[in-house]
Amino acid sequence: MIIPVMFGVSIIVFSIMLLTPGDPARLMLGERAPEAQLEAIRERLGLNEPPHIQYVNWVSGVVQLDFGRSIRSNRPVINEIQQRLPATIELAVLATLLAVAIGIPVGVLSAMRPNSAGDNVATVTTFTMLAIPVFWQGLMMMIIFSVWLGWLPATGRGQSWQYYILPVVTLGTSAIASIARMTRSTMMETIKLDYVRTARSKGLSGMRVVYGHALRNALLPVVTIIGLQFGSLLSGAVITETIFSWPGIGSLAVDSMRAKDFPVVQGVVLVFAFAYAIVNLLVDIAYGFLDPRLATRYS
């Protein structure tokens, strides 16, 4: 299904960029450029062709990883993306690892003691984390930990691990809350099943029952959430990268939209969509390892 999904995304992205006001040729040469030079640029870029011909030519290039050339820098778009992509992947991976490391244990502990003081605190905290806008949280953390306390650098991607703390925590906060809530919900359902009660009746320790039996079966929907969150973090990094001046493709997309650099915007959106589709494919494959019955059923 990745192929039809990407085909649909390409049509939407191309159509939106085609309908966006602005002449790429005039953006490249300036407002005072002679009409003859503008026509030459339009002819070279194929902008005088009918929309469907432009789309076919563009898709033919995309399949060969040729997204065109940037209007601002005149560099190939694929080079612009390759230069910025590692920083975004690094940020999204670290935020996902942080969310998994905190979200799953919090969800398990809440499910083990429902309606306790700890469970109530965790529930209120996760709802709060989901409700806080990313841009507000990022700015507040920057003001508190960089401006007031001076503990952490405010912007940039330096060599020190301290540069990663604020953007990773800001990006991963909502993912922590989502994973914790889903883990709690699925664990509360799983621990009520017969095989869990049987394991307890055999005298197995509580930790072994929880982590050796219940958690693995409760992880299927949690893995789904983790995969979706990773895809969301990749695309959601746009706001975080802009706040912290992180040199990823999210900030590249924002800068390109401001400059009306349509080829770069199209390339970034396609990369985000393809990454999201690949992550969902990997989640489906992970189901087979967590529950071999699913792999047997669909083989």
Describe this entry's structure for a reader.
This protein has 299 residues and is mainly α. It folds into 2 domains: 2-63, no CATH class; 82-298, Orthogonal Bundle (MetI-like fold), CATH 1.10.3720.10. The chain contains 13 helices and no strands. The radius of gyration is 24 Å and the shape is elongated. The two termini are 17 Å apart. The model has no long low-confidence stretch (mean pLDDT 82).
Which outline best applies? elongated
By CATH, the superfamily of the largest domain comes out as: MetI-like
Average residue pLDDT: 82
The span between the termini is: 17 Å
CATH architecture of the largest domain: Orthogonal Bundle
The count of helical stretches stands at: 13
Total number of strands: 0
Q: In angstroms, what is the radius of gyration? A: 24 Å
CATH topology of the largest domain: MetI-like fold
The largest sheet is: none
CATH hierarchy, class of the largest domain: Mainly Alpha
Secondary-structure element series: HHHHHHHHHHHHH
Beta-strand portion reads under 5%
User: What oligomerization state is this entry in?
Assistant: single chain
Indicate the percent of residues in helices: over 70%
